[in-house]
Amino acid sequence: MNYLSAENLSKHYGELILFENISFGLNKGDKVALIARNGTGKSSLLKIIAGLDTPDDGSYIINKDISFAFLSQQPEFDDELTIDQLFETSHSKTLQIIRNYEAAIEKQTENYNNQTQAEVDKASEMMDRFDAWDYEERVKQMLSRFGLHDTGQSIKLLSGGQKKRLALAFTLLDKPDMLFLDEPTNHLDINMIEWLEEYLSSSATTLLMVTHDRYFLDKVCNSIMEMTRGNIYTYRGNYAYFLEKKAERQASEQKSIDTARNFVRKEIDWMRRMPKARTTKSKSRIDSFYKKEEIAKSGITDRQLKFDVQAKRIGNKILELKNVSKSYGGKHLINNLSYTFKKGEKIGIVGANGCGKSTLLNIITAQTEADSGSITKGETISYGYYRQDGLKFDKNKKVIDILSDIAEVVKIGKNQTISVSSFLTHFLFEPKVQNNYVYTLSGGELRRLYLLTVLIKSPNFLILDEPTNDLDIETLNILEDFLASYPGCVILVSHDRYLMDKLVDHIFIFKGEGEIKDFYGNYTEYQFEQKRLEKQEKKIKTEGEKQEGKQSPKRENEKPKTRLTFKENLEHKQLEQDIAELENEKAKLEDKLNSGKLDYDDLEKTSIRVSEIIDILDDKTLRWMELEEFKD
User: Fold this and answer.
1) 3-state secondary structure of 189
2) Whether pLDDT at 273 is above 70
3) Most confidently predicted of 240-254, 280-294, 476-490
4) Core-most of 510, 533, 618, 629, by most CB within 10 Å?
5) CA distance 446 to 13
6) Could you give the CA distance from residue 493 to residue 507 in angstroms, rounded to a whole number?
7) Three-state SS for 605?
8) Domains of the chain: which residue ranges?
């Protein structure tokens, strides 16, 4: 069933063309990720099809028999309302059904007859259909899930992140048939992202979302729609399949561009000596020249850019924390943290929102004072601090002036410099954009510009607090390449698990009540270890419960387990065989998913089976690890 059809949509802002004559559709069950560079109109496109903006040209149709909801990147509410009042006064479909039911009951109480009974029966049927009987309980559960417990609180007192979580809860409550989500994972901690990931992937809701979170994209979406240079390209598969096919497309485009350029070079001399006789043959040759020239100037495939900024020299003494503690209003955020930073190490920080991650960064950079303990910084250390709330530009300045006020040139290597303009161009700010005013930039472009104001100072100790919010995937790939080769120290607070896995050596986990655990490994390794420990604890608890009531005394001299029994050895060998077979099946199914040849039903069945295999592999691998500890 077709849910959405868009034909020849175009949107301009003055001379800026966001997209032109793009067409696409959504069918029931599609879960599509829309990706593109910042500033190319992703949010504008979602607003148009959600009915909050109008296209300059083109049209779209949404199936009249379905419901849909839209999550904005920057939600707006009536700040004078409380959270409770927002839900009470909302125009949600479920609330309207509840009000209709209450009105029918009241009408029947006043005048009982066949007509009022029929109205109550119809209203009850709608209550059943939309699961409206437990709506209030669902509201409480959803708000609690997103960390919004004080529902009597005024919305104007909420932070930007809390407002985003409130909007997400509000969007999901009615269980719409189709969702348009603009950067849904921004301002969510990792636990919330994983919950949302599971919720959307298991839901029957049709989905079109803008996201830069590649793990989230891979788990939730079955298609990727790329918007580039005003065109739409659709890829039926996961993120790896998208990268492969995009590279093939770009190679094909580049070949056409190179062929056109060669033609133009040969013809340009002839064009300069254009014959006076305007024969049919010469006119045809002239027309061909202009067509090829247009292709030759069409440019061109995306650049392979690098964040190659020189860092200041770093000495032997980096940073030392000794017994650092911090509390606010009786809530312990950091309790006796001690750590000595080493050259070149990259540390990730994860934890629930409000647990003290940003507080630690502010203490390290001397913007907040610790309650106790000491912080000793090496003399050569120069911080580059990217803050969540750092977007404080003069919006009436030009883009290039923001950086020129900091430095006239940029050091990119030993005794090498480039101009500020070249530096901006390297980071996807084309020359024509550099002279635009800051207020014309999109949210992602502002974030990218802010990042450049940090890097242009050549710091040797980078502290990045949620740097991935609002950045497009292309910029993230560039940032990852830079950080991977960056010679200085890095502290990274991020909910982007892909980024964490690719970069960090170890992780500080904020567990709450001031406890901070140092785990050596990346986020996925930490997550896997947590699952193993949870399973182990569950097994111990189950075995303990089985032993309860048994009167046989525990043997005092019972020796701890040191080797596997014969039966466990057989199990260990079987697990190795099972894991290999499952990995092989998983690889074959992923190849099918990435082929782009499956119809919707096969795609759904294959995706479900891959998820099942991943769960089985986790269980079998955890058991194998338990047995491996006692293997001879």
Assistant:
1) coil
2) no
3) 476-490
4) 510
5) 18
6) 10
7) helix
8) 2-241, 246-296, 319-524, 560-628
The answer to whether 218 touches 193, Cβ cutoff 8 Å, is no
Length of the chain: 632
Element (H, E) at 34: strand 31-35
Which residues make Cβ contacts (< 8 Å) with residue 414, sequence separation at least 6? Answer: 310
Decide which of 3.90.180.10, 3.30.1950.10, 3.40.640.10, 3.40.50.300 is the CATH code for 319-524.
3.40.50.300
Residue with tokens 């930039």: 441
Cα separation, 237 vs 587, in Å, equals 14
Question: For 2-241, CATH number?
Answer: 3.40.50.300
pLDDT of residue 632: 59
pLDDT value of residue 307: 46
SS3 content of the chain, % helix, strand, coil (to 5): 45, 20, 35
The answer for residues whose C-beta is within 8 angstroms of residue 536's C-beta and 6 or more apart is: 626
Residues 357, 363: Cα–Cα separation, whole Å: 10
Please list, residue by residue across 180-204, b when 16 or more beta carbons sit within 10 angstroms of its beta carbon and e when fewer do: bbbbbbbbbbbebbbebbeebbeee
**Of all residues in the chain, what percent carry a pLDDT higher than 70?**
86
Are 6 and 47 within 8 A, CB to CB?
no
Pairing type for strands 319-328 and 372-377 reads antiparallel
- Cα(43)–Cα(36) distance, rounded to whole angstroms? 10
133, pLDDT greater than 70: yes
Alpha-carbon span 417 to 408, nearest angstrom: 10
Chain centroid to CA 562: how far?
45
Please tell me the distance from the alpha carbon of residue 318 to that of residue 553, in angstroms, as a whole number.
56
In the prediction, which pLDDT does 361 show?
Answer: 93
**C-beta of residue 495 within 8 angstroms of C-beta of residue 184:** no
pLDDT in tens, 454-487: 988 888 899 999 888 878 888 888 888 888 888 8
Tokens encoding 68: 């849909």
CA atoms within 13 A on the CB side of 528: 17
Quote the pLDDT of residue 629: 67
| Mean per-residue pLDDT, 387-415 | 84
| Per-residue pLDDT at 533 | 80
| Dihedral sign for Cα atoms in the order 436, 442, 448, 451 | positive
HSE-CB of 218 using CA atoms within 13 angstroms? 15
- Write the DSSP symbol of residue 157: G
Starting at the earlier edge strand, list the strands of the sheet with 372-377: 331-340, 319-328, 372-377
So what's the pLDDT on residue 269? 63
The SS3 call for residue 433 is helix
CA–CA dist 513, 511 (Å, integer):
7
> Is the CA virtual torsion 558, 563, 564, 565 positive or negative?
negative
What would the 3-class secondary structure string for 128-151 be?
A: HHCCCCCHHHHHHHHHHHCCCCCC
* Distance in angstroms (rounded) separating the CA atoms of residues 568 and 393: 64
Q: Hey, what are 446's tokens?
A: 């502002």
- The pLDDT value recorded for residue 370 is 93
Q: 138 versus 514: which is more confidently predicted?
A: 514
